[in-house]
Amino acid sequence: MTTMFETVRKSALEDSKPMRVVVDGEDVLLAKVADEIFAVSDICTHSEVSLSEGDIEGCAIECWLHGSSFDLRTGKPSGPPATSPLKTFAIKLEEDQSDPMIFVSLSESARS
Ligand code: FES
Fold this sequence. Notes:
By secondary structure, this protein is mostly beta strands. It has one domain (about 5-105): Rieske Iron-sulfur Protein (3-layer Sandwich), CATH 2.102.10. The protein is about 0% helix and about 40% strand. The chain is built from no helices and nine strands. The strands form three sheets. The chain has a three-stranded antiparallel beta sheet, with no helix packed on it. It has a three-stranded antiparallel beta sheet with strand order 2-3-4, with no helix packed on it. It is globular. The model has no long low-confidence stretch (mean pLDDT about 95). FE2/S2 (inorganic) cluster binds near residues 47, 49, 65 and 68.
């Protein structure tokens, strides 16, 4: 069975503003874009800086250090210097709540 970890309520996320949360010791970036929630690794695959200090453009997070952008849906970088994708994580929203809690699975990819 997949373990889902509680993070923050949906209202804590501002549109297109990344938020870093620590989920069971893992740095995770949460983002809300057009009312859709995404969870990806917060650590850039190029040089291990925190991506939540960067900006969201469309549905991608841009690394503030060298400028690679990562698609929040797939984790894939749009171009160098980063070449490896970010981990993506499945999320689940608490049911029947006007301001649902966001749960994240570290073992399940958002793409599965
Ligand atoms: S550290 Fe992120 S692109 Fe270089």
